[in-house]
Amino acid sequence: MSGVVVEVRVHDGGEVKKGDPVAILSAMKMEMVISAPHSGKVGELKVKEGDSVDGRDLICKILK
Question: Under DSSP, is residue 54 helix (H, G, I), strand (E, B) or coil?
Answer without folding.
Answer: coil
